[in-house]
Amino acid sequence: MTNGILNGPGAGLLLSILRNGQARTRAELVQLTGLSRSTVSQRIDALLIRRLILPAEDAAPSGGRPATAFLFNRRANVALAADLGVTHARLAVTDLGGEILADRNADLSIDRGPESTLGWVLDTFRELLAVSGHTLHDVCGAGIGLPGPVDHESGQAINPPVMPGWDRFPVRDWMSARIGVPVLVDNDVNIMALGEHWAMRPGVDHLMFVKVGTGIGCGIIAGGQLHRGDRGAAGDIGHIRVPTMDQMQCRCGNIGCLEAVAGGGALAARLRDLGLETADTRDVVRLVKEGNTKAVHLVRQSGREIGGVLASVVSFFNPAAVVIGGDLAEAGDHLLAGVREMVYGRSLPLATQRLSIRASELGDRAGVIGAAVTVIEHFLAPEVVDQIIAV
Questions:
Q1: Percentage of the chain with pLDDT > 90?
Q2: Is 88 within a domain?
Q3: Domain co-membership, 182 together with 242
Q4: Measured between alpha carbons, how far is 298 from 275 in angstroms, rounded to an integer?
Q5: Which of 74, 81, 165, 384 fits 97 for a cystine, CB–CB 3.0-4.6 Å?
Q6: pLDDT higher than threshold 50 for residue 3
Q7: What's the rounded Cα separation, in Å, for the pair 322 and 132?
Q8: Looking at the predicted structure, is the pLDDT value of residue 5 above 60?
Q9: DSSP one-letter code for 248
Q10: What residues have CB less than 8 Å from 301, skipping those under 6 apart?
């Protein structure tokens, strides 16, 4: 590749402009970037060779020959995505627009350990690629969400309370060595937040995604970007202490944690004490859908406890939307009603003036779409595209 391609704004920037619709033709790119027409043409040719864009003869100026418009080719590559929970998993193959091409839900015991679990993930990825008509050669990367704290930079789970044998296991490096593409690892709530933000774009740049399942966690989108905090611990609201519940023991070793009071596991245990057969969160949801008054009461109270904690967080962060997801969210309006009651009643009026508290739009697809988004945004970052073009 000539030095002209590498000087000034590169092909990656032009691709970003084409992706977001700011320009579609060479002339528009010249006007927007200040690059010469010949330089723009060189970069466009490089993107065409890599099939990251395709021509579309539908942009005719007034009079004269139609100008060639260029469209982002979302089918140029595929991304692999895995959302791993404690007892279940969802895996998918998506295109570069985040559309699911093939996916699978399966029961999973995360306590099988990392090598057994990740070996199954690899096998399933290969099967899904075959179903979607692709091979590993088409893959631009893999995104994995884990149900515990993750050091995003190293791709390792750090002291995960529900993942025995996973502490500091090199998930990223182990997977990347076997599939030969970049692997990005994050905790499950963060990737769900990314998935919801992707689905809601454009327009919502400040978002909290609250996952309510066996445990409780929160993913934060601030200024359109995922906020992890200094060490990746941002959003761990499940272990905020609920002052009135000092007698409730949490699996983290503390007492009175929100998770121990309002999480699906805690509700299932309380319903068992009342003589009902509830092994896990899904059983709680089943009882609510059947109209069991005890389950309905507990789920609504769970919403109030969660809302009590969120009320302070909303006043502090001032999001545009709070999205409730996770297994317990499938109980419907009962959980949401409790959350809304407390947040709208206790947060600062200005913080709730335009606040929307809603159920997840993506449901159980939020995690895999978010995992795919991490890969897509990494792969299509201007500096990465420039490196690909230069090879």
A1: 80
A2: yes
A3: no
A4: 14
A5: 74
A6: no
A7: 34
A8: no
A9: P
A10: 262, 338
Same domain for 11 and 150, yes or no, is no
What pTM value is reported for the model? Answer: 0.90
Among 21, 43, 73, residue at a domain's last position: 73
Question: Exposure pattern of 292-317 as b/e (b: 16+ CB <10 Å)?
Answer: beebbebbbbbbbbbbbbbbebbbeb
Tokens coding 19:
């992706």
Domain that includes residue 154, residue range = 78-192+367-379
Q: How many C-beta atoms lie closer than 10 Å to residue 333's C-beta?
A: 12
Q: How many domains does the chain have?
A: 3
Burial of 318 (0-12, 13-18, 19+ CB in 10 A): middle
State pLDDT tens for residues 321-349: 999 999 999 998 999 999 999 999 999 99
- Which residue in the block uniquely carries the two structure tokens 């002052």? 243
Look at residue 6 in the predicted model and tell me its pLDDT: 43
Rg of the chain, C-alpha, whole Å: 23
Instruction: Work out the number of other CB atoms within 10 angstroms of the CB of residue 39.
Output: 19
| DSSP character string of 32-100 | HH---HHHHHHHHHHHHHTTSEEEEEEE--SSSSPEEEEEE-TTS-EEEEEEE-SSEEEEEEEETT--E
- Angle in degrees, CA 24, 25, 28, rounded to 5: 90
Cβ contact 262:305 at 8 Å: yes
188: pLDDT confidence band, cut at 50, 70 and 90? very high
Bridge partners of residue 257, in order along the sequence: 241
The pLDDT of 314-322, averaged and rounded, is 96
Q: What is the pLDDT of residue 8?
A: 63
Specify the DSSP class assigned to residue 160: -
In Å, how far are 72, 274, 299, 306, 338 from 287, measured between CA atoms?
A: 47, 13, 10, 20, 18
* 141 token code pair: 């990367």
Amino acid at 159: N
Based on the domain organization, do 213 and 172 belong to the same domain?
A: no
Decide: 368 and 196 in contact? Cβ < 8 Å: no
Q: Are 121 and 140 in contact (CB under 8 A)?
A: no
Task: Please tell me whether residues 112 and 17 are part of one structural domain.
Answer: no
Residue with tokens 């595209």: 385
CATH of the domain at 121: 3.30.420.40
How far apart are the C-alpha atoms of 48 and 138, rounded to whole Å? 16
